[in-house]
Amino acid sequence: MMITGNDLILACSAIGAGLAVIAGIGPGIGQGIAAGHAAAAVGRNPGAKSDITSTMLLGQAVAETTGLYGLLVAMLLLFVKPLAK
To answer: Which protein family is it in (predicted)?
Structure first.
């Protein structure tokens, strides 16, 4: 079996895309932890529910950008192949 340069580029693109998608694990864990702590905070102080919720949602939006960047890199690696012929 002969592996050409084009085959190597395609294989590396697929491996890189898989690794980039793994970046979605961190935001998922972080958002779950943030939601759990926010729920506990609302349980302790129900009067501050709106402040806690808005702060939690802002933090989750910032954390989600990491996962979105990983997805973007994965899609670029899979569908945009500038070196492949």
So the answer is: Belongs to the ATPase C chain family.
CA–chain centroid gap for 33, Å, is 15
pTM for the model: 0.73
Residue 41 has φ and ψ, to the nearest 5°, of -65, -40
pLDDT tens digit at each of 85 positions of the chain: 788 888 888 888 889 999 999 988 988 898 999 999 999 999 999 999 999 999 999 999 998 998 899 999 999 988 887 665 5
Can you read off the two tokens belonging to residue 66?
């990491």
Q: Does 84 fall in a domain?
A: no
Contacts of 38 (CB under 8 A, 6+ apart): 52, 53, 55, 56
Structural domain range at position 37: 5-79
Alpha-carbon Rg of the chain, whole angstroms? 20
**49: domain CATH number?**
1.20.20.10
- Give me the number of domains the chain comprises: 1
